[in-house]
Structures are given as structure tokens and as C-alpha cells.
Amino acid sequence: MTEVDSTIVASTWTRPLQPPAKIPDKADIVIIGGGIVGVSTAWFLAKQGIKVVVCEKGHIAGEQSGRNWGWVRVQGRDTREIPMMLESQRIWDTLEQETGEDVGFVRRGCYFTARSRKELESIDTWLGIADEYGIESRVLSAGEIRKHLGDSPVNWHGALYTEADGRAEPHKAVPAIARAAERAGATLLTSCAVRGLETSGGSVSAVVTEHGTIRTATTLCAAGAWSALFCRSLGIALPQLKVRGTVARTAACENVLDGNVFDELLGIRRRQDGGYTIAHGTIIKHPITPSTLRWSIKFIPALLQELKVLRLSIGREFLEEWRMPKRWELDEVTPFEQTRVLDPDPDPGVLRGIRKNLDKMFPQLAATPIVESWAGMIEMTPDVVPVFSDVPKLPGFYIATGLSGHGFGLGPGAGKALAGMLTGTDTGIDLKPLRYGRFFDGSPIRPQSSI
Ligand SMILES: Cc1cc2nc3c(=O)[nH]c(=O)nc-3n(C[C@H](O)[C@H](O)[C@H](O)COP(=O)(O)OP(=O)(O)OC[C@H]3O[C@@H](n4cnc5c(N)ncnc54)[C@H](O)[C@@H]3O)c2cc1C
Question: What is the pTM of this model?
Fold first, then answer.
């Protein structure tokens, strides 16, 4: 088997930073954030000849977009995301060809397992939704699961299965999209934090970065876990909270399963390098911060939904957020420069659980070492679907954030939809259900899918 670099994932955010030699003095559109949403949007804009600049405070894919599990699934999604996700999968199909780079995308199916009939009943409600959107999902019996997932001592009652779902390699795919955007004419600036905006007559007139000012009338905040802070500095309230996900990767090993499996023990998928990306199936950690208190009422429905899996803690993160400035002068160093890369430690207890659960679920892999582990902060809105929207009180300012634990797969489709939003072009993807105002206009807050 081929030798794999022991930091193949972490090297996305640990290599030396490359500040820009110079920055453009103007652009049609400036995007804040070089995650999958920022670079995909830039790619679709640049292909239309629009002069777009992406400012990333750290590395391309240095935060959520380089740390995720790599699942590209429609199964189990909120109906508000489904048309965009189906479009995204179509883009994934040709991404390799379009970017000229290996992104590791393959469709090998997605499984949500159930241990009991009751559990199966709680997930097979998806079948009605799948039917409505023409998605081929079905329930596998215990016997069928064995055929798909091979030998495991776990006694599964059934599983929800969508054959057309797939996976890609985040550390390859996101930089590949970024390079494609550059080739199409976009300017990508790394190590370039955006400190704030200038306005003229109440509308956006420039983006102020740590390296200078870029004149523009349109800016998109695709700042992931930092979006709420950035918006707050502009006087815009954005309900957003974060949870920490710990992830690990095994060495290359026997192929015991080729799809993505979500089980109460593990989330697991085969990697292109012959190993597995693995995470705990039922632990989500939320460090309580002042934002938790500020937004608790709006997040109650999501909290109740995740009650069984959510582990709350209070510690360092509370004080860090408490002390973090909320406003600053634009000639001052900001929190975005102070934390170039949000790089939480993987949780040692969760890592032990992952190892134990892997051995329990696939004893054939008991001797396979875990060779790399990392963590990422997943950010979400109260209804666990994104905000893709203008903000009426600040013309020219748009938000694309809150993709929760499902934004990697959605990224290319989001890029297409957002490029349409910014240029006023109809892409056939309805973004009204994702408007910013829904959290403040009395609309019911109803998460349909989990984090
Ligand atoms: C552990 C984990 C597992 C996941 N698993 C999956 C999965 O299997 N499938 C799936 O579809 N999704 C998954 N996700 C979710 C997915 O990774 C995210 O939804 C997606 O990457 C979000 O992309 P983004 O571009 O919005 O944000 P990010 O990738 O977080 O990018 C935002 C960028 O903005 C930059 N930034 C912030 N503020 C500024 C500023 N002021 N100036 C300049 N730059 C700034 C940041 O440095 C960052 O790089 C997972 C996430 C995690 C953490």
C-alpha cells in the first residue's frame, strides 16, 4: 500500500502562511472567507467574467472546510437544502473534469443505521421526502445490511440507504476549486483578514483588510465560525453557535466497507488513500459561551432535538469569547488576525471512544492504527440551515453562513446559488427560505435535520 503523509489532513492549515504581495484597489465583489463556500462562489462568479476577490485570514480550507468528514449526501437533509444539494451533486460529478484536478469524489452510498424498529421508524420518514424530490432512497433489511457492510458483530435492525450519495477528499477538493477560481480570473488573498467595511450613503463602498482597502459595492460574508462576530462589528445580529467535532483517520487497511455509514457508534467513510475517516456517532460537544446565553431562546428547538447527543461544558471558551473585542477601529489588529486559524484540540475522551467503537463495529480493523486526529468547530443557525441572504439595513452586504455539519457537500451548489444571488441571476434554486430575516420576523424556527 502507498505511504501516506502523516499530516495529510493537517497540512492544509499548518503550512507557512503566504501574505499577499499586493492587493487590488477595487473589485466588483469581495468575498470574506476562503472556505468551500467562499471559493465556490468566487469560481462561479469568475467564470462569468466578474472581478471577484476572496480575502482569507488564514489558509484556504484552514477551518471547517478542511476538517470535515468529506460526506457529500442528500439523505436526511432539510427540504430547504435539497434542490441546492441535488445541484451540488451534479457539480461534484464533473468537478474533476472542470477543475482538471483530483478531488476524490465518488458515489458509494450513504447509510443511516438503526438498532430497533422504533429507531428505523424515526429515520424512514425521509422516504416520503425522497420520493417527493425524486431521490432513490430505501430501507435495507438486516440481511441486506450484511451484504452491504460485510461482517460486523453489531445487530442492526435496518438502515436507510441512498446509493447516489458520495464522498470527496476535503484537503484536495477545496484547494482545487480555489485554484480553478484563480484560473478563471478570481484573486485569492490568504493571510488577509478583513477588518470591516466602509460605507457611503448607507451602502457598502469598500472592504478594509489588514493589508489595505478594496473599493467595492458588494461583499459576501462567508466567514464560517466568525460570521456572527464580523456581523456584530457592523451592528448586525446573527444567531450562530458552535460545536466541536473530533475526527480521526486510520492508516490504509482492508476494505471492510466502501460507503458512508452513520451509526450510533461511528460515522465512518472510506478514504481515497485506503484508510477510513472516523468520528464518534453520538457525541457533539458544545462549549457554552456568552453567545449561548445570548441566543439560547432561539436555539431551544435545536437543543431539544440534539438533547441525546449534546454534551455541554463551560470553561476556557467562555472567557475567551467574553474577552474578545466586539468592535474595533479599522486601523487596529482585530480578532481575525489574532486567530489566523481556529484550531481546537481533538478531545482525548472522544478519540478513545472512536477507537473503542471502531474495534466493536469492525473487529477486522482492531490492529489498524489511527494515524492522525484533528478537530473543527461546526457553526450553525437556530434552524440548522444556512443564511444565504442580503441584509436590508446594509445594502451591498450579503451573508452566506451557518451551513452546519453539511456544508462541504453543499459547497459547490451553494457557490452556484450565491453567485446567482449576487448577480441577480435566476439559478432555479430558491433562497427565500434561507433569508436572514426569518429569525426576527416571527417565523417559526423548525430544524428538520440534525447538526
Ligand atoms: C468535524 C466536522 C465534520 C463535518 N463533516 C461534514 C461532512 O461530512 N459533510 C458535509 O457536507 N459537511 C461537513 N461538515 C461541515 C462543513 O465542513 C462546513 O459546513 C463547511 O466547510 C462550511 O464552509 P464555509 O466556507 O462556510 O466555512 P469555513 O470552511 O469555516 O470557511 C470560513 C473561512 O472564513 C475565514 N474568515 C473568517 N473571518 C474572516 C475575516 N474577517 N477575514 C478573512 N477571512 C475570514 C476563516 O479563516 C475560514 O477559513 C463538517 C464540519 C466539521 C467541522
Answer: 0.97
